[in-house]
Amino acid sequence: MSEIFRFEDVKKLYPVQKKQLLDVIFRRKIPDVRALEHVNLSLDEGKILAVVGESGSGKSTMGKIVATIETISGGKLFFEGKEVNPGNIREVRRNVSMVFQNPSTSINPRMRIKELVSEPLGKFDEKAVRDVLNSVGLDYDDSKDKQPREFSGGQVQRIAIARALIKDPKLLVLDEPTSALDESIQAQMLNLLISLQKKNKLTYIFITHNIGVAKYISDEIIVIYAGEIVEYGDTRKIIETPKHPYTQLLINSIPSFKSKTVASPVGDVPSLINPPEGCRFHSRCPFVMEICKGREPPYIDVNGVKVKCWLYGENGN
Ligand SMILES: Nc1ncnc2c1ncn2[C@@H]1O[C@H](COP(=O)(O)OP(=O)(O)O)[C@@H](O)[C@H]1O
Ligand code: SF4
Ligand SMILES: [Mg+2]
Q: Which of 8, 58, 158, 236 is most buried, with most CB under 10 Å away?
């Protein structure tokens, strides 16, 4: 199986605010939001990778970097073995599509469905639009001249997926594709995505705050906390024997498999402008030790799963 993309020590910083003229004159340093740091990962073709974490942890940023909507501030990004650069970025974009977090804001409400779905092609191709709408369970003749507001939330999400699929991409980034939907249609949407992935031999990056959904859909999981990966590996291993205390808390908080809302661990994700020293999770961790407050834990391989925690390796057990 071949690798579709890879991150090597990727970092993403956002300026907290845009530089004003006075900042330039007085050379004021604008602090950064450290949205992602030390990110190393790779994904093989045909796999589903779930990116799991609370709101504000850097999940969407990771997805946007893969879709080349955001640039990186450090490290390297590879697509099919080649480092992404200005010379090949169009090729990458042809092969990667993203379905955004909130379809009702990412989709132009004034466009008709046939225009919306064909827009990424740059031209209208009736057969392509008909086929792709059909593949997501919508009838072309019924929907082509309608606007998004004439559809339900679930149908709008199907339209957003059709729009992402029309270029026949290899990799699809799905940013919380079911979280805005009613519980009753979430499972339907997940099953549609699974069948599209098999039929079109797609690779998915599936972003979700619900580890129960990740368990259902993915082959591999990345658990991300305050801009860093804390646990990364095979889905079954992570769900059955979670190693990182944060992953354990997320799993314990799955109320029921189908539930839409997940009770988060106590407390909030820390500020990414000034992340805590040492382990970023230490203020919320039930197992916190002295070392955790002062020294950043390294990544340790535990039974094939990468874990960033002082409980493991030489200093742990
Ligand atoms: N364009 C931006 N400018 C400044 N800060 C941003 C921008 N986009 C995201 N952030 C910040 O980066 C962090 C991670 O955000 P995001 O990737 O959207 O997290 P998630 O998808 O996990 O909720 C947050 O602190 C967020 O406020
Ligand atoms: S390094 Fe320490 S504070 Fe961080 S998760 Fe592990 S035990 Fe908890
Ligand atoms: Mg997000």
A: 58
